[in-house]
Design brief:
The protein is of the alpha/beta class. 31% of the residues lie in helices and 17% in strands.
């Protein structure tokens, strides 16, 4: 009952394989439900090199609808991973009104107008930044994302560790407010297994954050962040084990932007 709610398509320009291939692999590994959540377009096309343009949004929806018809035995949700940037809230609301989405994943990639912390092409930026300040800014933005109530799930909640840049020792005050706001806003936090495929070699978020989330009763979801069919559901056994080890027994499933808790 762990559904893979974080998967991409070639429209984001850095993923391989068509949605049908992702769905086929999901069935092969025994998943009963998945959700496509490709990077949403921005109001300005070519905002960066790793998302679809707005003119491709209808094509994206059509691809997912066609896959739903081709695989009626698999529940397939239609969603987007949407970047949270202050000042872009109206654009997110416009996107939300365009199609009957099942959920939005809210993610923070940008800690400044020009720097996405997980972009390998801008890895050298870390050499010119104070790591503690990067982490502080990141969690401030993540808190704002949760507070906006624009999202159903918050994605990869400690993303700055991707390339091995660990947070400062006492960083609990940075994420505690985010978790409090997430609980109050009613949004889930995903366990994203892509971290096990990155330099950090750890699920997003860390056990430390997840333990605090459980104590605060923040709901969770699961996602592989798949950018290729073979990555669908990858390392889900590890994610389920981690969730259970801190006390979780339920995760969220989404339909029409409404959450239902299911046991796993």
């Amino acid at each position: 009952m762990a559904f893979d709610y974080h998967m991409h398509t070639p429209l984001c320009r850095h993923a391989a394989g068509e949605p049908q291939e992702y769905a086929r692999h999901a069935l092969e590994i025994g998943l009963s439900e998945i959700g496509f959540s490709d990077h949403s377009p921005m109001r300005q096309d070519n905002f960066d090199s790793w998302r679809m343009n707005f003119s491709q949004l209808d094509e994206y929806v059509a691809k997912i609808r066609a896959t739903q018809k081709q695989f009626p035995q698999l529940t397939i949700r239609l969603a987007l991973e949407v970047d949270y940037l202050p000042g872009h809230e109206d654009w997110i609301r416009e996107l939300a009104a365009l199609h009957p989405w099942d959920y939005f994943i809210g993610s923070v990639h940008y800690v400044s107008d020009s720097w996405a912390i997980d972009d390998p092409q801008k890895l050298s930026e870390w050499n010119y930044r104070d790591s503690t300040e990067v982490w502080r800014t990141y969690f401030e933005l993540l808190t704002m994302a949760a507070e906006s109530k624009l999202f159903d799930i918050i994605g990869h909640a400690d993303l700055p560790k991707k390339f091995g840049h660990r947070p400062p020792e006492n960083y609990a005050p940075m994420y505690e407010k985010f978790l409090d706001v997430a609980k109050k806003s009613g949004c889930a936090m995903e366990l994203n297994t892509a971290g096990l495929r990155k330099d950090c070699d750890e699920i997003y978020p860390s056990r430390q954050i997840l333990e605090s989330a459980f104590q605060k009763n923040v709901p969770i979801s699961f996602g592989s962040d798949a950018h290729a069919p073979r990555e669908v559901g990858m390392n889900f056994a590890d994610a389920v084990q981690l969730a259970r080890s801190v006390g979780y027994t339920e995760a969220c499933r989404f339909s029409n932007r409404r959450c239902q808790k299911v046991r796993f």
